[in-house]
Amino acid sequence: QVQLVESGGGLVQAGGSLRLSCVASGSILNINVMGWYRQAPGKERELVAHIISGGGTNYADYVKGRFTISRDNAKNTVYLQMNNLKPDDTAVYYCNFKNPFLRSYDYWGQGTQVTVSS
Asked: What's the number of CA atoms in the CB half-sphere (13 Å) around residue 9?
């Protein structure tokens, strides 16, 4: 089992910045993918960005140039730096931790609310 604890959400004005953090604990596999997803009211959960244990990253088109994902493997922590936030970024942001070769090794955090006011 893996436990994920997110922090860093909140209320910010458009154009502002927030930094999300997610700490993983428990049965950590060295090969893993840590990612951030978000879900806005009435919409499906969607990928924001992910980063593999070797450091490669992938971003959704709508956050490229504004958000940066990073990780500290020693701390089993993934970060999401969000700059130039827009009202459309308002959503619950979820941390995900998985191994791409083990379907059952797929864990979610409880979510953290990000609200961007116009």
From this structure: 19
d(CA 80, CA 71): 9
One-letter amino acid at 115 equals T
pLDDT digit string, tens, across residues 32-91: 999 999 999 999 999 999 999 888 999 999 999 999 999 999 999 999 999 999 999 999
What is the predicted pLDDT for the residue at 37? 98
- What are the percentages of helix, strand and coil residues in the chain, rounded to 5? 10, 60, 35
The kind and range of the H/E element at 76 are none
Cα separation, 109 vs 2, whole angstroms:
10
